[in-house]
Amino acid sequence: MIPEIELQSPQEIKEYQEKRLRELLPYLQEDSAFYKRHFEQNKIDISQIQTLEDLQQIPTVSKDDLQKNNEDFLCVPRSKVIDHVTTSGTLGDPVSFYLTDKDLNRLAYNEAISFACSGVTADDTIQLMTTMDRRFMAGMAYFLGARQLGAGIIRTGSGIPELQWDSIEKFNPTYLIAVPSFLVKLIAFAEKNGHDLNATSVKAAICIGEPIREPDFQLNTLGKKIKEHWDIDLYSTYASTEMATAFNECSAQQGGHLHPELIIAEILDENEQPVNAGEVGELVVTTLGVEGMPLLRFKTGDMVQAHDESCTCGRNSLRLGPVVGRKKQMIKYKGTTLYPPAMINLLNDFSGIDGYVIELRHNELGTDEILLRIHAPAANDILLKEVKDHFRAKLRVRPNVVFESKETLDAIRFPKTSRKPVVVVDLR
């Protein structure tokens, strides 16, 4: 199930996207209060925007714009809104998104072709280990996509390893959709309670929310921990509520494939200019085919590296490597630039650590400081020194580290309104 456009030449893909862009611009000017104002204030003549390169004439928009002008992005009357979702609020207050019936069909199509990219067929059964409530778009997208693809669905929800294993052994799923760190907990539960990991029907997991690969596509520490114990294929996926689109890995596992019919992607530097080939930059997206709240040149805040060479699967669409980090969470620490995912990867090296929060703040000199709040059942000075030395050896930084009780750490990691654990707290 590969859309024909993804097999076209890069030039044909570009021309197709330019045609769709020219259809989007009049719609935004006519029906989006925000973009109508945006075009007027910046003296944008949309008739002059004919190519992807011409997008540079239009200023980008950010999460701040969405927060301050949320309702002005809506392009349809409220009577056409079917589903109401919100973002997770990773770096600020959640933003509301309104989906029409057409948007729900688009969402189902997006996830169906994304699942198919990762090898899912109508013969497979998917165990969905994520919530469908709490105004969460992703869980609903997975359900709709699997349904459109014709695959079986087991809605177990998040957490509860005992329920997950009961469902695995009762319904024989072939694919799991889960946060990779939860798969590690699932493995630990299995080993403790006599479940044979490699005697199950599970052949693959689609990993959401956390990276499992290094920039060179090799498995990172978290990915290796899973594979060492459970001989299943692991597929990365990258998505966000704002994009209403997913980038899934194919069997080559060399980055998530862009779907040209659903989204235009730009990778920009700090001056909002396209980065050179192979360089890391911020992902900026323009959604295609969205009726309720389409976005034009939206800055995701995610730092990524794009790959444009043809894939061995036959697709010629752009591929994205794993997210390096959030732009706003970039840390300048004693001459070193780094992002939280690099620290998370190192913390996952320690089997004795079963929970952590990375806290970022400014010191009295106005420079960045890193505090690692860690829970370890066998906390001691030796582990403390090992963590600090490991960071210094791998990242050339030596953060402050404190041990916390499980209760104290959980209070930070699981705020009442959050749909997923908080791992990074930025107090700067």
What's the short version?
With 428 residues, the chain is α/β, with parallel strands linked by helices. The protein has helices spanning 10-31, 33-41, 63-68, 101-117, 137-149, 161-171, 180-193, 221-229, 340-347, 381-395, 406-413, and strands spanning 81-86, 96-100, 125-128, 152-155, 175-178, 204-207, 233-240, 245-249, 256-257, 263-268, 280-287, 298-307, 319-320, 325-326, 331-333, 336-338, 355-362, 368-375, 400-403, 424-426.
Characterization of this structure:
The protein is α/β, with parallel strands linked by helices and 428 residues long. The chain has 2 domains: 1-324, ANL, N-terminal domain (Rossmann fold), CATH 3.40.50.12780; 330-426, ANL, C-terminal domain (GMP Synthetase, Chain A, domain 3, 2-Layer Sandwich). It has 11 helices and 20 strands. The strands form 4 sheets. Strands 3, 4, 5, 6, 7, 8, 9, 10, 11, 12, 13 and 14 form a 12-stranded mixed sheet that branches. A 4-stranded mixed sheet has the order 19-18-17-20, with helices on both faces. Helix 1 (10-31) crosses helix 2 (33-41), helix 4 (101-117) packs across helix 5 (137-149) and helix 9 crosses helix 10 (381-395). 36% of the residues are buried.
